[in-house]
């Protein structure tokens, strides 16, 4: 079911509100629901994260997509959405960011999802320590590994944070 055109576009907050209204009509829907319907793509589900988070509306939120878009298996979509949700909520809750972006890249071999913010960043020891206070980071890593992917985090004090999830495309797409 891997149809789609090679495109690159940016979805910004005004578009997200319109898309959300169209896709979800008047009901609030958890992000997992669009992933179970093969009529939705990952990037469409990710557009709902801004409204789902219910945090500061002054934070700029964008979703970038490049490459030949694919329909993902429901399991892959749900896990990647959950990881992205955790990363976005962490950025809104802890980083004091003024901008958060998600970049979805479809290559011939992998699906790569980046969640970036321009917030306060994290101490490198905290990122790698595995302390209970970083349970969200540990869960993101475990979710990524559960779908055969690789998880990477980069962060530096006063320079923001970037989370990367990379999953082999052959295991990610819906059959």
Search tags:
alpha+beta, single chain, 6-stranded mixed sheet, Heat Shock Protein 90
In short:
This protein is of the alpha+beta class and 175 residues long. It has a single domain (6-172), classed as Histidine kinase-like ATPase, C-terminal domain (Heat Shock Protein 90, 2-Layer Sandwich). The protein is 41% helix and 27% strand.
Could you explain how this protein is built, in words?
The protein has 175 residues and is of the alpha+beta class. The protein has a single domain, classed as Histidine kinase-like ATPase, C-terminal domain (Heat Shock Protein 90). It is 41% helix and 27% strand. The chain contains eight helices and six strands; from the N terminus they run βααααβαββααββα. The protein has helices at residues 13-24, 32-36, 42-47, 49-53, 74-94, 124-129, 135-146, 169-172, and strands at residues 6-11, 60-68, 99-106, 110-117, 150-156, 160-168. It has a six-stranded mixed β-sheet. α5 (74-94) packs antiparallel against α7 (135-146). It starts with 5 loop residues before the first strand and ends with a helix. Mean pLDDT is 76; it is low at 1-34.
């Amino acid at each position: 079911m891997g149809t789609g055109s090679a495109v690159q576009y940016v979805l910004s907050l005004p578009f997200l509100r319109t898309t959300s209204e169209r896709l979800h009509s008047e009901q609030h829907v958890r992000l997992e629901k669009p992933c179970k319907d093969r009529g939705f793509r990952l990037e469409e589900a990710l557009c709902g994260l801004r409204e789902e988070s219910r945090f500061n509306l002054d934070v700029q939120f964008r979703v970038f997509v490049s490459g030949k878009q694919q329909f993902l298996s429901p399991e892959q979509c749900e896990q990647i959405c959950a990881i992205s949700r955790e990363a976005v909520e962490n950025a809104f809750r802890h980083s004091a960011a003024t901008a958060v972006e998600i970049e979805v890249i479809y290559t011939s071999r992998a699906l790569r999802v980046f969640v970036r913010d321009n917030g306060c960043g994290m101490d490198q020891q905290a990122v790698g320590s595995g302390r209970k206070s970083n349970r969200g980071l540990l869960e993101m890593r475990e979710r990524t590994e559960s779908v055969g992917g690789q998880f990477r985090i980069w962060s530096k004090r006063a320079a923001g944070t970037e989370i990367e999830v990379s999953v082999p495309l052959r295991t990610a797409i819906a059959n």
